[in-house]
TrEMBL record:
Cleavable signal peptide: none
Protein name, as recorded: PadR family transcriptional regulator
InterPro entries named among the record's database cross-references: Tscrpt_reg_PadR_C (IPR018309), Tscrpt_reg_PadR_N (IPR005149), WH-like_DNA-bd_sf (IPR036388), WH_DNA-bd_sf (IPR036390)
PANTHER family reported for this sequence: NEGATIVE TRANSCRIPTION REGULATOR PADR, TRANSCRIPTIONAL REGULATOR YQJI
Residues annotated as domain Transcription regulator PadR N-terminal: 11-81
Domain Transcription regulator PadR C-terminal positions: 94-175
Length: 181
């Protein structure tokens, strides 16, 4: 799936929650989806314009795009369903930590251990954030029809963080006693 199609999916998905301005849409994408997805204003505005031209969203009020409220149309919901049903194309991996660890002999064990401790600590912090968000949503929005699906995405983050912490701990143990180059 092309990047532009995924941007359409994020924009239409955000508007499926409720009509909103482009700025509010960007805030939703940043604050709600931001743990696993991002879009810039430079991507959102042209996508909104193209979706409006295609009849998938309608703009209400305000002479300028910035002050207008956008709402998804019936054809926009159909387009969103089509986009959501497309096969997922995973991006090529680019993991700076793993790249450094792969060349750890050059970097040195102490630096590798420092990188692993930092990765572990960041994963622990993120885990606490996800668990807090899940507890808050469960208490405040657990009755809403979107909640089970929001919970699924949070559970993915929670499991990934737990796995990252366990992996970093295992690597630190492996590097702990052996200071040979």
């Amino acid at each position: 799936m092309a990047r532009s199609s995924q941007t359409e999916m994020a924009v239409l998905g955000g508007l499926s929650l409720e009509p909103m301005t482009a700025y509010a849409l960007r805030e939703v994408i940043r604050d709600v989806l931001g743990h696993f997805w991002s879009e810039s204003f430079g991507q959102i505005y042209p996508t909104l314009h193209a979706l409006e031209e295609a009849g998938h969203v309608r703009r209400e009020g305000g002479p300028r795009a910035r002050s207008s409220v956008y709402a998804i149309t019936a054809s926009g919901l159909a387009r969103l369903r089509d986009l959501l049903a497309e096969p997922i194309q995973e991006p090529q991996p680019r993991n700076g930590l793993l790249l450094r660890l792969f060349f750890g002999r050059v970097l040195g064990r102490d630096q590798c251990r420092a990188l692993l401790r930092d990765a572990r600590d960041r994963a622990r912090d993120q885990l606490g954030e996800y668990e807090g968000i899940l507890a808050h949503l469960t208490a405040t929005e657990g009755h809403l029809p979107d909640f089970p699906f929001m919970r699924l995405t949070l559970l993915a983050g929670i499991h990934q963080c737990r796995a990252s912490v366990a992996w970093a701990e295992e690597c630190l143990t492996e590097l702990a006693g052996d200071d040979n180059p």
